[in-house]
Amino acid sequence: MKSAPAPASSMPQQPDPKELAAEIVKALRYRGGKDANVATPHDWLTASIKVVRDRIVDAWIASTKQIYDAQAKRVYYLSLEFLIGRLTRDAFSNLDVMAAMREALASLGVDLDEIATLEPDAALGNGGLGRLAACFMESMATVGVAAHGYGIRYANGMFRQEISDGWQVELPETWLDHGNPWEFERRERSMEVGFGGTVEAIAGPGGQDERHVWRPQERVLAVAYDTPVVGWHGRRVNTLRLWAGMPVDPILLDRFNAGDHLGALAESNKADALSRVLYPADSSAAGQELRLRQEYFFSAASLQDIIQRHLSQYGDLHSLPDKAAIHLNDTHPAVAVAELMRLLMDVHGIDFNAAWDITRKTFAYTNHTLLPEALESWPVPLFERLLPRHMQIIYAINAQVLTEAHASGQFDGGQISRISLIEENGERRVRMGNLAFVGSHSVNGVSALHTQLMKETVFADLHRLYPVRISNKTNGITPRRWLFQCNPGLTALVREAIGDRFLDDIDTLKDLDAFAEDAAFREKFAAVKRANKERLAALTAQRLGIRLDPSALFDIQIKRIHEYKRQLLNIVEAVALYDQIRSHPERDWTPRVKFFGGKAAPGYHNAKLIIKLANDVARVVNRDPAVRGLLKLVFVPNYNVSLAEIMIPAADLSEQISTAGMEASGTGNMKFALNGALTIGTLDGANVEIRQHVGEDNIFIFGLTAEEVAERRNNGYAPRALIEGTPELAQALAAISSGVFSPDDPNRYRDLVSGLYDHDWFMVAADFDAYASMQRRIDAVWRDPAAWHAKSIRNVARMGWFSSDRTIREYANDIWNVTA
């Protein structure tokens, strides 16, 4: 990692553990109001965080001053999610105070590892997109990119998942109930955000063009909360700024005194809802409206903040693209394109053409999906009611783009219709993906396959109109979180083998490749993996009462529950394997534990049904003595970052089995491989590049390619005949459909299974044979421990390229035009 030099004052000095201990006791007393004799573990955690946070602040201020003095360009990363997880280990480790803090706390009779587990996971994200944003923020600080992350400070965020009788139950995630010691409230950075109302056209003086004034009907305040993001060795500290909704008037006192108590608090409740829950269910009109309100709320507040900062230093918005790179993480903040145009034209008096030039040069957009339903669009009446001026601006932008497309002579009527920012077929909707595309100077995919498919499918016509706008930036993960912190045993073993250079230059991890054929090293590597599996087995016993044998193959699929990610394929294969183990007890079966984890969107019926199916199958299989413990299924509730940090180092096999052509990249696949798990997967997303880096012999690829999936869908795929010609699959589906695993409700899974017979859009049946055959090949490799561990070591050694530091340098050089 070739990081930019940091300000001298920001480089941390190694603290004396005795001095740290004294500071912790002082913080406990004067900032927490507690004596050491009565302090609880939570008190010790908060005091420890405050002591380290004080040191971070010095580096934070120095980093900010350095950028200001140098008049350097800043990156502003807008994301509806930041799945940052717990920050204690991250900050302590990156500031180089972990060992000293551990010793200081031990001298006070406190175990750092124990109190660190008390920190709640910040409920600021759902899955890969939010975790990527968190990795990117840490890497930007590490490689020396001056950056602000902008998002929403969700009080409850993504729900806390419990499993009741096998069903997912959604409960509020109350992570902020006792405050957040890492954050700083910036009440002086409150921004006013409006909704609804009317737009007036006012003639300009001396016959100049008219200008528009938006007069919102509703106004709320966005209040800033800042969290410092520490780079490796504390070289730079950047800012994650999250917005909380507050009412302009907390209570309408006249209405309250008149007896209308609920009405008096209506505005307060509306404002509070903006930062209450991540991804409110959008199956209702009210849910759709709240989602759009959230997206505009944080985008508008962030742009006001960016413009104020720019004007205070430079005084002229024409230089904005030279000093600010604003990045849209998926379509959620795409409304920022229209909002910046509004601010430039209506507030700062810049004409349309100049404003459009500034806007396009300032924004860049990352696309994360090829699923049409995930490319957000909003009904025109809803959009126009909530954001009337923005609707006018979008029509004006659309006129410019469609005129350009028509003038090029390249497009017929249907193609121009697909380029339009307004969907005209059926219900008229605003296409946010198209708005983000045309409003950005750069659009990128997140893996080589995903980027190519963007050009060929969802953005084919826009790519033809703007042929140099799309580029690829394959995702990455921060090795600090996903190796050094979550797998200290493996990190220590790698240091023993190749020295410390990989800690600062992750590419040198490739030196470990030479140890794959070293029998003594393989033995040590196996011992580390065994210890990690024992830790996961202990957690499973404690939380679920399920006892596991750590010598079994730990086969793990943890990710958002969605039909394209094909947890169903995994479960159906488990049922088929269950039948085979009972039918052929004489065979040498490989003991296996299949782990599942992930949340289903509250309104996604089939995804929730798949969770129930996993638990129903587990209940039957785990209790059947005929299986002899050779197969177990475990669904671990409430999957989050902290749980991932335990499960990923314990994995022997990583399930990355999405329908080819549907996963943009994936980052779980990278985390697993970096920790020595072998991948079973399709040629989808970043699996393609992982195979290139780890080698075909060290990954298990199966199934249809993206081209073959498209061909089958286009040429009349008949899943029923295929299922009926595959006895193992047909028997497994018959068992599921007939109620073998749901005797209380024999029809529970009938529709789920009939969907596979009727259309099988996600190619579960089409890929079943290849998947099951590959699992049996994996069994054979597992029975040769030397071969298995050699493959695992090669995976670890060859994953350095997938560092988010590399990804960020590519963004910095190719898109943002900043130094890294």
TrEMBL record:
Modified residues annotated as N6-(pyridoxal phosphate)lysine in this record: K671
InterPro entries: Glycg_phsphrylas, Glyco_trans_35, Pyridoxal_P_attach_site
Presence of keyword Chaperone: no
UniProt GO BP: glycogen catabolic process
GO cellular component terms, semicolon-separated: cytoplasm
Reaction it catalyzes: [(1->4)-alpha-D-glucosyl](n) + phosphate = [(1->4)-alpha-D-glucosyl](n-1) + alpha-D-glucose 1-phosphate
Cofactor requirement: pyridoxal 5'-phosphate
SUPFAM superfamilies: UDP-Glycosyltransferase/glycogen phosphorylase
The entry's keywords: Allosteric enzyme, Carbohydrate metabolism, Cytoplasm, Glycosyltransferase, Pyridoxal phosphate, Transferase
Coiled-coil regions, chain positions: none
GO MF terms held by the record: glycogen phosphorylase activity; pyridoxal phosphate binding
Top-rank taxon, per record: Bacteria
Keyword flag Signal: no
UniProt main location, coarse: cytoplasm
Subcellular location: Cytoplasm
Protein EC: 2.4.1.1
NCBIfam families: P_ylase (TIGR02093)
Role, per record: Allosteric enzyme that catalyzes the rate-limiting step in glycogen catabolism, the phosphorolytic cleavage of glycogen to produce glucose-1-phosphate, and plays a central role in maintaining cellular and organismal glucose homeostasis.
Homology family: Belongs to the glycogen phosphorylase family.
The protein's name: Alpha-1,4 glucan phosphorylase
Species whose genome carries this gene: Borborobacter arsenicus
